From TrEMBL:
Domain HTH lacI-type: 13-67
Annotated organism of origin: Microbacterium paraoxydans
A molecular function (GO) term: DNA-binding transcription factor activity
Keywords: DNA-binding, Transcription, Transcription regulation
Protein name: DNA-binding transcriptional regulator, LacI/PurR family
Length: 340
């Protein structure tokens, strides 16, 4: 290869190249590779052989754009380094593949706000996606609803009150109630509830309110701590309440639960002998080995419902009624909460 050749990027193989190599028209090559039309077996074989030899790959997105719409669904996903979002992403991909849908994904870090969220939304819509699945709370209903006339929009994982956004979501309030009922059954009478503020984590906020409702109805003294987004936020206040007599700390996520357990150990407190600690999510690797008392959220069911619902929305002859599908997880009793 000459120096000039080495510095020249390879040209992309086009359908015209395939047609020329096979000795047919561009239209014939296009129809043959799409599986359309009827051709002599030797013609079909010659076209396929030329495409394979030249390394031709059909630009499906461009073809669908030319037709005015793609068969691809956009996915806005929160940072997949979080195990719950990582599992949701993999399950959505698997369900979409089995259903014949293609997903194009934009991942948004948990700390990104405002313009970056909107830009990510616009990038997906600019690809003329057929539908949009939103698996992040970082973009609001007010930012999504203006596009609901263009494509069906479904929020996966999180509840949504907006009147034009479909959902397949976790029953966060139900999860909070199940965990609180477990703590009440264990006999705890003074409990701390530690969760993110509504701005930090709306699902955690919903879980915490449900916990408070059940605990208060059972006559339990409750200390509510509304914290920031970091797992360690609010932990100092929670342990102060334990020193003042609380026997359990109910955390609205497993990450917060681990932060409380680490701080308790550093303070010389034993879990669950000195303080019971619960979490919620049940997705953390090794949660079973740690014996976490938590609630396993139904990621698989939500992913399956999200893809199934989106497929129904895309194939409906008439606009579908608003779809709201809620899924409740399973209590994991574990060993970090004990009777008193």
């Amino acid at each position: 290869m000459s120096g000039a050749d080495a510095g020249t990027p390879a040209l992309r193989v086009t359908i015209s190249d395939v047609a020329a190599a096979a000795g047919v028209s561009r239209a014939t090559a296009t129809r043959a590779l799409k599986g359309e039309g009827r051709f002599a077996p030797e013609t079909q074989e010659r076209i396929l052989e030329a495409a394979e030899r030249l390394g031709y790959v059909r630009n499906t997105m461009a073809a669908e754009l030319a037709a005015g719409r793609t068969g691809t669904v956009g996915l806005m996903l929160r940072d997949a380094s979080n195990p719950a979002y990582g599992l949701l992403f993999s399950r959505l991909q698997e369900e979409a593949h089995q259903s014949g849908l293609d997903l194009v994904t934009v991942t948004i870090g948990a700390d990104e706000q405002g313009a970056k969220q909107v830009n990510a939304l616009h990038r997906l819509l600019g690809m003329r996606v057929a539908g949009l699945i939103v698996a992040t709370g970082g973009i609001s209903a007010a930012q999504l609803e203006p596009f609901a006339d263009q494509v069906p929009i479904l929020r996966a994982g999180r509840v949504e009150s907006a009147g034009r956004i479909h959902t397949a979501h976790y029953d966060d309030e139900g999860h909070g109630r199940l965990l609180a009922e477990h703590i009440v059954a264990l006999g705890h009478r003074t409990v701390v509830v530690l969760a993110g503020s509504p701005d930090a984590s709306y699902p955690e906020h919903l879980r915490a309110l449900a916990m408070q409702e059940v605990l208060t109805a059972a006559g339990v003294a409750v200390t509510m701590i509304s914290a920031g987004a970091r797992p360690e936020d609010g932990v100092h206040e929670a342990l102060a309440a334990v020193r003042a007599g609380a026997t359990a700390v109910m955390c609205a996520s497993d990450y917060r639960q681990l932060a409380v357990m680490r701080a308790a150990r550093a303070a010389g407190l034993r879990v669950p002998e000195d303080v019971s600690v619960t979490g919620c999510d049940g997705i953390l690797p090794g949660a079973d080995l740690l014996g976490l008392t938590t609630l396993r959220i139904p990621v698989e069911a939500v992913a399956a419902a999200a893809v199934e619902t989106m497929q129904q929305l895309l194939t409906a002859d008439e606009p579908e009624m608003l779809v709201r599908r809620s899924f409740t997880g399973t209590l994991v009793s574990g060993s970090t909460a004990a009777a008193v």
